[in-house]
Amino acid sequence: MKSSLIIVGFFLLGILAGKLGIFPSDLSFEQLTMYILYALMLFIGLSFGSDPRLPEILKSLSFKIILLPISTVIGTFIGIILYNFLIPGIGLKDSLAIGSGFGYYSLSGVLITKFSGEAMGTLALLVNIIREIFSLLFAPILSKYFGMLAPIASAGATSMDTTLPIILKSSGKEYLISSLLHGVVLTILVPFLIALIYKIL
Amino acid sequence: MWIILVLLFAGSIAGFLLTRLKSLNAVSEKISMYTIYILLFFMGLNVGTKPEIMKNLAGIGFDALIIALFAIAGSVATAYLLFRFILRKHEE
C-alpha cells in the first residue's frame, strides 16, 4: 500500500509539473524517459545477476511461463466481450481491436486509426495509456490480492519495459523472465491481432 | 525493444561476474528503486505536457477508463487462475 502511494505521488507530481510548465517545454520528455528507463534496465540486470538466489530462480523456470501471455490474451478478450455485452455502443470488432493494444498505446493508436478512423484510434490510444498507468499505479495492490502474475497480466505488452521495474518490485525479482517473455510475446502480437480482427470480423 | 533486452542481459552478466562484491545486490536494488520514482515523475510529466491527452481525457476519458478496466479485469482474472492452479509452486 505504501509503495503504491509513493508511486501515485510521483506520477501525479509529474503531471502537475507538466501542467504548470515548470520544465522548458522544448525538452523531449519522451526521449528523456527512455534514457532513464535504459539506465534502470542496467541496474535491474545488475541486481538480478548478483542475486544470491539466482541459481534457484533459474532452476525453477519451466515452459509453463509461456501460458502467461496466452492467459492475458484470453482474459483480455473475455473482459472486452463482457464489456460489449453489458455496454453496447462500440462494436465488438472495434472494442476487441482496442483491447488487443495490451497497453502498447502508440502502435495500437496508429494502427486502429488506419483501420477504423480517427475516433477509434484516439479511443484506443487512451484505453491503452490508461492500461499502462493503471498497471504502474496498482501493481503492488494487484500482486497482493490477485497473485504474483496479476501485475504482469495487467501490464500487457508493457511488462517488458515501462512497467517491468514496478512489477519486479511488487511480485519479486524471480518474475523477471516471465515478465519479459510476456511483454515480448504480446508486443509482437499487437499488430498481428489488430490486423487479424479487422480482416476476419 | 532490443536495447532493453540487451541492457538487461548485459547487466545480469555483469552482476553475476561481480557477485563477489557483497554490497552490489543491495546497492543496485536501492538505485533501481529511486530510479523508478524518477521514471514515474517523468512519465507523469509526459502525460501532463501532452495537451491532446489531457483534452481527450475530458471527452472520451470515461469510456476509455471503463474499457481499460474490463480488459484489465479479464486478464487479471485469468492470471489469478493460472497462478492459483497451475503455477502455484512459486507461492511456496
Which key phrases capture this entry?
heterodimer, A: 201 residues, mainly alpha, 10 helices, 0% strand, globular, B: 92 residues, 2 domains, 3 helices, flat
Q: What is the CA–CA distance across the termini of chain B?
A: 33 Å
What is the domain tally of chain A? 1
Structural class of chain A: mainly alpha
Q: What is the number of beta strands of chain B?
A: 0
Query: Could you tell me how far the N terminus lies from the C terminus of chain A, measured between alpha carbons in angstroms?
Result: 42 Å
Helix content of chain A: over 70%
* Low-confidence spans of chain A: none
- Helix count, DSSP H or I runs of 4 or more residues of chain B: 3
Question: How much is the radius of gyration of chain B in Å?
Answer: 20 Å
Oligomer, anyone? heterodimer
Overall description:
The complex is a heterodimer of chains A (201) and B (92). Chain A has one domain (2-200). Chain A is built from ten helices and no strands. Chain A has helices at 2-20, 29-49, 54-59, 67-86, 92-99, 105-116, 118-146, 150-155, 164-171, 176-200. Chain A starts with a helix and ends with a helix. Chain B folds into two domains: 1-49; 51-92. Chain B has helices spanning 2-17, 24-48, 51-85. The longest helix of chain B has 35 residues, at 51-85. Chain B is flat and about 55 Å long. In chain B, 35% of the residues are buried. At the A-B interface, helix 1, helix 2, helix 4, helix 5 and helix 7 of A face helix 1, helix 2 and helix 3 of B.
Question: Mind sketching the topology for me?
Answer:
The complex is a heterodimer of chains A (201) and B (92).
Chain A: H1 2-20, H2 29-49, H3 54-59, H4 67-86, H5 92-99, H6 105-116, H7 118-146, H8 150-155, H9 164-171, H10 176-200
Chain B: H1 2-17, H2 24-48, H3 51-85
